[in-house]
């Protein structure tokens, strides 16, 4: 997979992409992540990429030209499955969408900023608008990092134990069961006996029961979604 991220604040994305699973997936050649500074596509001598909105409201709007030039350049190099725009008014990211997107070959993510982008970009160039939740961030960079992490960790080989991506919370619309590690008894806080029994089938059954019980108690909405 190739991920191209267009942003006015590339610095914000440096750390998330240079550590942990996102870094390892790049080192293993499973994903190529390229971060593009929108200012590099500005024709303005001061590399300006925004302007005041028509209509007199406060705030600044990212202009069409640099964004169009950045996306057109990328599209001239390869075909893209989706051109995503990070926005609080997009469809809310969930595990099903992350699964779908992890199957794509090439994705562009345009990070929104300030008051947003000139709406014509959304009308003519964006194929999918995604939000990471019903709250407003200062910019789309953290949302792009969240989306990339959720997507890339699903690429086979990205996390050491592939089984563990399949057993994540939300796969199958169930929350994950509780996990414990050594020592089995810490200050009298005990690990459930069943997990120490070595009885594989019974342990799996217990985990499934725990998943269902936790989902019913904490996220009953997920159970009605899968009906
Ligand atoms: N930009 C600002 N807020 C956002 C959100 N909640 N999701 C995605 N992009 C955003």
Question: Could you characterize what this model shows?
Answer:
This protein has about 230 residues and is an alpha/beta fold. It is about 40% helix and about 20% strand. The strands form three sheets. A five-stranded parallel β-sheet has the order 2-1-6-5-7, with helices on both faces. The protein has a two-stranded antiparallel ribbon with strand order 3-4. The chain has a two-stranded antiparallel ribbon with strand order 8-9. The longest helix is centred in the C-terminal third of the chain and has 19 residues, at about 200-220. The chain starts with a strand and ends with a helix. Adenine binds near residues 132 and 135.
The total of beta strands comes to: 9
Terminal CA distance: 32 Å
The rough form would be described as: elongated
Mean pLDDT: 95
**Order of adjacent strands in the largest pleated sheet:** 2-1-6-5-7
Summarize the structure.
The protein is an alpha/beta fold.
What's the topology here?
Elements: E1 2-7, H1 10-17, H2 20-27, E2 32-37, E3 50-51, E4 61-62, H3 64-77, E5 82-92, H4 95-102, E6 106-111, H5 119-124, E7 128-131, H6 141-152, H7 162-166, E8 185-186, E9 189-190, H8 200-218, H9 220-225
Helix pairs in contact: 1-6, 4-6
This protein binds adenine.
Adenine (ADE) is lined by residues 86-88, 112, 131-133, 135-137, 140, 143.
């Amino acid at each position: 997979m190739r991920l191209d991220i267009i942003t006015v604040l590339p610095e914000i994305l440096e750390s998330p992409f240079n550590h942990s699973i996102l870094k390892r997936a790049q080192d293993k050649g499973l994903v190529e992540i390229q971060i593009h500074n929108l200012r590099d596509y500005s024709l303005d001598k001061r590399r300006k990429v925004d302007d005041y909105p028509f209509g007199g409201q406060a705030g600044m709007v990212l202009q069409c030209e640099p964004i169009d030039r950045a996306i057109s350049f990328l599209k001239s190099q390869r075909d893209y499955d989706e051109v995503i725009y990070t926005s609080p008014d997009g469809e809310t990211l969930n595990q099903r969408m992350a699964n779908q997107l992890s199957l794509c070959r090439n994705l562009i993510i345009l990070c929104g900023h300030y008051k947003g982008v000139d709406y014509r970009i959304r009308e003519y160039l964006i194929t999918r608008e995604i939000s990471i939740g019903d709250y407003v961030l200062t910019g789309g960079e953290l949302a792009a990092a969240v989306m990339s992490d959720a997507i890339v960790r699903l690429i086979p080989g990205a996390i050491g134990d592939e089984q563990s991506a399949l057993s994540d919370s939300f796969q199958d619309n169930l929350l994950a069961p509780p996990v414990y590690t050594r020592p089995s008894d810490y200050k009298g806080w005990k690990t459930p006996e069943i997990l120490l029994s070595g009885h594989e089938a019974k342990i799996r059954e217990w985990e499934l029961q725990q998943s269902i019980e936790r989902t019913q108690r904490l996220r009953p909405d997920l159970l009605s979604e899968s009906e």
